Structures are given as C-alpha cells and as structure tokens.
Amino acid sequence: MSVSRRNFLKLSSSGLAAATLGINLAPIEARAEDLPILHARETTTICPYCSVGCGMIVHTLGGNIINVEGDPDHPINEGSLCPKGSSVYQLRDNKARVTKPMYRAAGAGEWKEVSWDWALDEIARKTKIARDATFLPTSKIKVKKKVGTTEVEKEIEATVNRTMGIASVGSAALDNEECYLYQKLLRGLGLVYIEHQARI
Amino acid sequence: MTNHWIDFKNADVILIMGANPAENHPVSFRWIMKAKDAGAKVICVDPRFTRSAAKSDLYAPLRSGTDIAFLGGLINYILQNKLYFEQYVRDYTNSAYLVSGDFKLPGELAGLFSGYDPKKRSYDVKSWSFQKNEDESVKKDPAMQDPHCVFQLLKKHYSRYTPELVSKTTGTPKEKLLEVYKLYASTGQPDKAGTSLYAMGWTQHTVGTQNIRAMSIIQLLLGNMGVAGGGINALRGESNVQGSTDHGLLFHILPGYLPVPSADLKDTGAYIEKHTPKSKDPQSANWWQNRNKYLISYLKAIYGAKATKENDFGYAWLPKLDPGMNASWLMIFDNMIKGKFKGFFAWGQNPACSGSNSNKVRNALGKLDWMVTANLFDNETASFWKGPGVDSSKIKTEVFFLPAAASFEKEGSITNSGRWAQWRTAAVKPLGQSKPDAEIIHELFQKIKALYAKEGGALPEQLTNLTWNYGFKRADGTTKGVDIHAVAKEINGYFIEDVEEKPKPLKPGEKAPPAAPPWAPKKMLGKKGELAAGFAQLQADGSTSSGNWLYTQSYNEKGNLMTRRGKKDPTGLGMFHEWSWCWPVNRRILYNRASVNPDGKPYNLKKAVVYWNPTAVLPTGAVGAWVGDVPDGPWPPMSNEKEGKKPFIMRADGVASVFGAGLKDGPFPEHYEPVECPVPENFFSKQMTNPASKVFSDANVKEDQLATCDVRFPLVATTYRVTEHWQTGVMTRNTPWLLELQPRQFCEISVELGKEKNISNGDIIEVSSARGKIEAVAMVTPRIKPFKIGDRIVHQVGLPWCFGWHTSGVGDAANLLTPTAGDANTMIPETKAFMVGIARKG
Prior knowledge:
The complex is a heterodimer. Chain A is α+β, with helices and mostly antiparallel strands. Chain A folds into two domains: 9-91, N-terminal domain of TfIIb (Single Sheet); 115-196, no CATH class. In chain A, 30% of the residues lie in helices and 29% in strands. Chain A has helices at 5-21, 26-33, 83-86, 116-134, 176-188; strands at 41-46, 55-61, 64-70, 102-104, 112-113, 135-147, 150-163, 166-169, 194-195. In chain A, the strands form four sheets. A three-stranded antiparallel sheet of chain A has the order 1-2-3, with no helix packed on it. Chain A has a two-stranded antiparallel ribbon with strand order 4-5. Chain A has a two-stranded antiparallel sheet with strand order 6-7. Helix content of chain B is 21%, strand content 16%. In chain B, the strands form 13 sheets. Chain B has a six-stranded mixed sheet with strand order 28-30-29-35-27-33. In chain B, α4 (67-80) packs across α8 (174-185), α4 runs parallel beside α10 (208-221) and α14 (329-337) crosses α16. Chain B is globular and about 95 Å long. Chain B starts with 12 loop residues before the first strand and ends with a strand. The mean pLDDT of chain B is 96. Chains A and B meet through β1, β2, β3, α3 and β4 of A and α11, α14, β10, β11 and β12 of B. β4 of chain A pairs antiparallel with β12 of chain B, so a sheet runs across the interface.
C-alpha cells in the first residue's frame, strides 16, 4: 500500500489512538476522515512577505479561509514555509484589518468611518486642486550648446509638464499590474516625486 | 539577482555578507544547506553572529560600514597570489583597456580620485576615460601589463589594502581575514563557482553602491558571473520589490529601466540620442541600441491612439525632471518638512517607521494639507497625528485611509528576487469593504478624469489621454472593475498594426537574395491585435505597444506564462524553465554566455548553464545552436569573428566593467567611513567620508543632526530584521501568533559592554542618537563582540527596525535614531552604520 500524505495523517492518528485507548476506534477514524480541508477549495498563491516567492495553497470553504500551507509542488519551497508564511491565515481572520474607508479631519483627534464614494470624491477634488495650483508647464534650465568648437552654456525655457506639489511613496506591496497602473496614474497626474521601498 | 534562489545549491563557496538569509529569507536557506550537503563551504561576514553565521563553515566579524576595506583586501589577495581566472578577466572584462594618463588614484591624491570639485561635491570624470585609437576604438593591452591598463591600476589601487590595514579598520582578526580570502579565492578555478548573497547590509550606506561594485569586481576576477552557483545576488526584502522596481515606481526610471526624460531632451529624437549607447565593435550586441523601440512602445501603451508620429507619440505629456534634478526619497521628506508639498500618497508603505531619521518624516507629514494612505492595517504613518508627543489639535493635515485587499483576495503577478514573475489567484473576496489596489487606483483615475473632462484645468490631456480600457463599459462611458488580465496584456504589448518581417541587413560582401514574386505571401512578424511574442518584435515606429519591454513574452498568444506549473528540469541545475516565467525572455541566469569559453564550451562541464552545439540543424537550415538556459542572444560563440558576440550584452562594449567610469564616486571602490563613525581618522586616507555622498546640513531643519566621534554617542549601531516580523511590522505586528513570538523592541549588546555599563540581560535601556531616542530591552549576548579598531576598543550594538508605537507595548521605531544621509549613486539612506549611546533606565 502506498502511503499518501493524507493517508499518512489518517494512519498515524488512528495508530496513535489505538495505542492510547485500545478501544472503539470508529469515532476517532470518523474525525480523521473529516479533516477540515477535505472538502475545501484549493487556490494557489505566493507568499506576500519576503522575495523568495514561496508557493502556498489556500483552503477555502464557503468563502472563508480555513487553512494556508506550503505548496509541495512549488520548486523553491517544496512545501515548507517560515513563521511569517505559516501565519498568513491570520491576515484574514483578523479584527485589526481596516475594512471601511476612514477620514481624519484637520485638527481632529479620531478617525471617522466614511463611504468609498465620499473618500474618493474628496481625494479626486484635492488632487485636482493641488495639481492645478502647482503644475509647472515649463522650467528654466541650462543647456550646453556647441558654437563652433567651443561649448557655451545657455539658459532656456523648457517644457516639463510636471506637478510640484504632490509626492507619492509605495509600493512594493502591490502586484505587478497594480504597480504599472499606479505609475501610469501618477505620471498622468504629472508627478515626478515618485519613490518606494526600493530606495530605502 | 543575476541568478535565482534554487541556484544557490550549485555553488562551491557561498559568501553571505550584508545579508542574513537564515532569518530574513528563511526558506532560501534550504538551498544553501543543499549546497553544503554537496560539499560547498559557507562563509558569513557580519558584525553579529547571526543564525546564518551559526550554519556557516567560517564566520568573520566586521565593524558596520567597513565592507569595502574587507573586500578591497580580498581583491588585493586575489591579485597578489595570482588566483584570478586570467582568460575570463582578459576576454570578458575591461581589464585590458588603457585609461587616460591623467587619471589618478586615491593613493596619490589623499583619498580622492582625479577630477574632484569640493564645491559641487562631485567629480569631473574627464580623466576617467579610456585611451582611444584613431578609429575611436579603445586602446587595449591584451597582456594586461601596461601601467595605464585597468588591471594594473586595479592592482596598484588595492595594493594599499593590506591584511594589516584592513584588520585595523574592520576589526576582523587578521587570521580570520586570510581564512576568508583563501577560501573565497578558491573559486577562481575555471570549474568552481562562488556566489555572493547580499541585502540591505550593503546598500544602506553612503558607499552602498561601491560595496556591491567591490564584490562585482571580485566575481569578475574569479570568473563567477554567468555561471551556475555564481553571480551577484541581491536578496530583496519584499515579495514584489523587484516588480515594483521593474515597473518604474521610482523618480528616475520609467518601466523597463528607461530613464525618466529630462527637460533638455525636448523630443523623442533627443531622448533616444542621449540614452542610446553606441558601439562600432561588431562583436558587441549593445542591447540598449533598442532603446528607441522600448520608449516608443511604452508611449503607445500608455497613450494608445492618441500617440501619433505627428505628435511625437505624446512625449510632451510625460512629466520631465530638470537636468540633474534629485526627486528621491530623502529629498521628498526634506521638501515636505519645508512645506513644499500640498498632497502626499503613502500607498502600502509606512515611512514614519521605515524612513531614516523618522522624527523628520513624522514632523514633515504635519506640514501637508492632505495625505492618502492605502493599507491593510492602521499604522504609524496613517495615524501620525496621534503619535507620541503629538498634539493632534495642532495638526492640520487631512488624512484618508483606504482599506486595501490582502494578497490572496485579488489576482495578479509578483516578481521574486530571482526575477520569476508568478501569478496569484484570488482565494476569497476582499474582507469587508476593502478593495484590491487596482480597483482603488482605477476608481480614483475615473473620478479625477471626470473632473478634468468637466472643468478643464492644467494640461488635462496629460491625464485624459491615457489609455484605460480594463473593465466593463457602462452606458455613461465609465468602466466598472478592472480585468487584471487586460493590464497584464498591456504590459506585455500588442501589434497595433500588421508588421512584416524585415529582411536581415546584408553583411559586407553578401549578395541580396532574389526578390520574392509579388504573389508570394508576405512574411508577417505579427498581425494587428496580436500579443507580442517577445521584445525582439517591438518596433520604434508606433506599430507595437508594450507597457514594459522586459515583461514582453510574459502574457502572449500562448497564454499567461506566469501561471505555468511545469516541473521539467533537464539540466538538473534547478532552472525550471516551465515554472512561471522570468524576465528577460525566461532567462534564468543572466550573462550565461560568460559561463563558456570563446568556443562555446562550458568552463564547468558538470554544471553547464549553456553550451554551443555546432552540429545542431535548425528548422531554418542554419547550423549551430545554444543548448540549456535561454542564452543572452542567439549569436554563435565569440570565436566566430563575423557573427559571435561578447557576453555582457547590456554594456555598450560587450564586456563587464572592472573599471566603472559611470559611477559618481570613483571608478574603483575606496574605503570611506560612514557619516557618523567612531574613529577620528580613516586609516586609508585623509578623506574621512565619501566625498560625493549627499549630506543634509540645512540649519533650518533641526531634525538633521550628525554626531561623529561624540562622547555622548560612542557605540556603532546597526539595524536589522527578525524572522517573525516583516519590514516595519505593520502586517506582522497585527498577526497575533507572530507578535507573541517576537513581542518588543530589543537592543543587542556585548557581554563586555553590559559589564562596562552595568546593564544585565533583560534590563530596560534607553538608546539615543543625535536625532532621537527609544526604549528597548537589553539583550546581553556573546553574539556581538567588541572590535579593536586601531588602538581603540569599539563597541557595536544592533536593533531590529520592525516596531512602532501604534502597537501598544512594543516600543518605537529604530529609525528614529538613524541619520539623513544618502549614497552618492543611489541616494539610499545610511541606516546600517550610525552612532548611539545607551543607558540603563530607572
């Protein structure tokens, strides 16, 4: 008989039970049969922490995550995970997660829950005001020009089309597609002060 | 990384220096242990005896901030004992090139290279150029004997790095130094490989770039680049910091490492002229000669049909920097504290803890009109207005917190340190009202665009001309939701028009083939609407698009290659070409044609990454092909003088740079002390600190203080991570299992220092610098030992940087102590070597 991972779990738990109790095994076996992940949907993902890129399997049942474990087929981690990866489950089952947009007014001492629409409308409005007020269509720059054989420095008014009053930091926490969209939005707004974790 | 995680198993010697993979990249250590099982030796060099050190064959301590001295000594050892791989050095690097006779070394100029301007704190690099022949080619001495050749200059420069002087500076015992040098230099044998694993322990210094340059020189001298088990491997800290860098979330690069345009380059023609290196060497592939194709394809991706030949593909809409303008991290917060910004986005980042000199960052946030933060959890940045010592009624900054979905609640790809782009599928819907970042960005774009469409404003076209067709169209023209596959395909790129295959340019003396008859079917490279198969198909005339040329191939007509789960490994080297996809073009080891001799024969036959099979017959009828990894280009080996190419294809001259004239602080690394250091003199020269590094000394910014050789702060400090927490700890401090394992800020000190300061293990101490102070639990440990630096005893301490006030009872951020000082080339802050004092509390 070949022993698969799940069969092994069944075997070892019934063996253990037999050794300790030596009596009716039926309920114990039934429990072992009922491993919570048995009927769960398996989805593969990659660990959100360091850059090793370990594969994970997320088990979900009824729209809830019931287990996260290392992906044994993944060539880098071959099923293993570190403490951080092993506790990704708790990023979902977590009361501290912020699940509604929040706003803090000038001078306020606490957060206030707000709607997505209100928050994004406000941010859009403020972004536009800051952009329009600090947009620099041109800038005086010095360029070197060759006159005959000598180089002469000359001041010119050059097109720059940039927004001076808004900056952005982040984010290595985003997916590639999101990073691409984010830089597209920021450059579409004329930002040049764009930085993230890679600089620090 | 030039190589990848699994490839560690192929190394003969592994040098862990400036990194601590056992604790910070734990699962990667299985591949280090597999190398050990196969007989490899592991070296760890670190101020602290880490868990990586505990598993190493050889551990050597060094004082934080003295890596160049340590590595310079290794270069000297390799050269003096002739342990370099001569053929590799001569054929694959610029070691044989002759440098201008005006060039002077720091040994001749009191620690400076020739051309330094103290007023500008920068170098005029005229004297760092190569001597040229009449036909503009570089003068070379293949025997590498000419006193002006790079090899002889290297030898002369590092002859100053004697084991005695290195030991005096680093505090590493001389016999340990020599043990490390001997072991690592053993990989100079053609069939041996040594790998370098580094992380922020090397980058976060005012000489950060030169730390890595020093190791690059060593790897080139020993022939360790391009080979299995070799390379320069940055162990990056975040799951997608490789991808976010690739996609240009930095002030100086657009996606695919295209420089952000500067104002002096008024059109694409000027941009391409400036940023396209030229080479007349027929053996140089000079890959960046394709820059024009990548720039135009990027413009076509972001502006679509609005980018036309007539309007220069919309180049004018791209925001531009002034020439030389520095818009990097430290400058953002320097400008912010001076009140120069109205608005600020902190998207998935916590600068109030991760920014060096965090008090400066926190005070700067209070000068904003508004701030937007997107995150999973509340944190020190989002709630800075209620931080310790802050009177929130006085803070006028309006703050928005946008709840983001977690990684397993959305779909998309991330790129690991080995450049593998791996696809993630959504396991569950986002928690509560949280949304994937892509959805938030999408909705924000729609709302701002609507305002501009309705009201006009400053150059609305910059925003309104962006292509943005990722979702389902509503009746009013707006779209709902983001189809992330549509974004991935835009990044990959399309044929916008039918593109015919171009005939290959004729070689001199070659006859043109007979013209095809008019009725013959046209040979097509791609048809309108098709996804591009690879970046070699991209065009400079607007007929193709690609959001990031490096990712072209990732999602093509064959499908989404990033989802692949194939396990074939025919070479046994662990390259797994059918698992996910890696940039560029699924090449798993960069510069792999440097692993073979000029005839295409592997230097190490047992671990051949690629080899040239001269008898292979291709479907086209051509004879000869590369076997193994995807090679750095299809050309035959270098010994084929007509068609062969040199291996370092991203360099204009096709060879690797032992002499790096493109750096801002010198073509060879030179030891300088950190901006804050414990010794009044640099034993190598009169120049104390990196003369080209960025110092912040505005008297109006009270947060910027430095204290070097100050009796109040006599201890060298460094920061690091712990296994149980990640970065500033926003996610892990909110994970109960992890917080229980690692519950609060500590400071590691030596047994000797504990005795001197009357501090016992577990005591609460205050750690202070010129910029701030924090409370920590003293961890008195033999893992840190005092150093003998010259005639002095210098103590080193270490602190994790994963804590912050927002989690109650854990202590505040270690970055409150670190200075504002930037590396000369990258502007990365110096947070790995600074000075502190400690005292027992109560």
